Amino acid sequence: MKKLIVITLFSFIYLISSAPPNVSNDLSPLNVFQAYKTYQVKLERKRLMDSAAYHESRNCPTIVNSIGCLGLFQFGKSARKITGYGHVDIKHAIRDQKTGKRYLNIAYWPVKDQYLAMDSLMNFNQTKLAKEIDIYVGSRVCGVEITLSGIIMTAHLAGWHGVKNWFDTFGKDNATDMNGTSILTYMKLFSGYKI
Questions:
Q1: By C-alpha distance, which of 171, 161, 182 is closest to 79?
Q2: How far is residue 76's CA from residue 61's CA, in Å, rounded to a whole number?
Q3: Would you give per-residue pLDDT tens digits along the chain (195 residues)?
Q4: Which phi and psi angles does 66 have, rounded to 5°?
């Protein structure tokens, strides 16, 4: 474990020291620490998105569900519109002749763009739920510790307004998606990330 930490730290220092000329190359201990902390948050955010992709689609970037949610993160129409991908639509799905299932043409919405859309949606939800984040992070609702990552990913499941309503009713309005996954389930599932 120590070896991994040392390798990660040296890799990070190398990345900073080889930064383009317009980026600060100040390797003072404070700047290295702040940059490393930012790097760790980005890694943790990526880990959170990877986990969400697994839970939403089992890491299948081409999947289309029965109500038209698409890709790794099963974006619905409104989420695609919010993130600037409103042009990606169910009409761009390809139907498998043998099974009759629809699949998203990955050339039309590449995996990189799906991750960018998820990052954008996370930022959007964090902004919309700023008041609830300030009030509830660190507390417990329905026996679950409330974290920033839990709130943001739950907003992906139920929408920011669904999460707001859940807090307003102290967890009594525990909405579910079409698969029966509840707000409380996502709040627990994604609570352990330091983003």
A1: 161
A2: 14
A3: 555 554 555 555 555 454 444 445 566 666 766 776 777 889 999 999 999 999 999 999 999 998 999 999 999 999 999 999 999 998 878 888 899 889 998 889 999 999 999 999 999 999 999 999 999 999 999 999 999 999 999 999 999 999 999 999 999 999 999 899 999 999 999 998 998
A4: -70, -20
Task: Give kind and range of the element (H or E) at residue 145.
Answer: strand 144-145
Pairing of strands 102-104, 93-95: antiparallel
Alpha-carbon Rg for the chain, nearest whole angstrom, is 19
Question: What span, in angstroms and rounded, lies between the C-alpha atoms of 132 and 47?
Answer: 24
CA 134/CA 43 separation, integer angstroms: 23
pTM more than 0.85: no
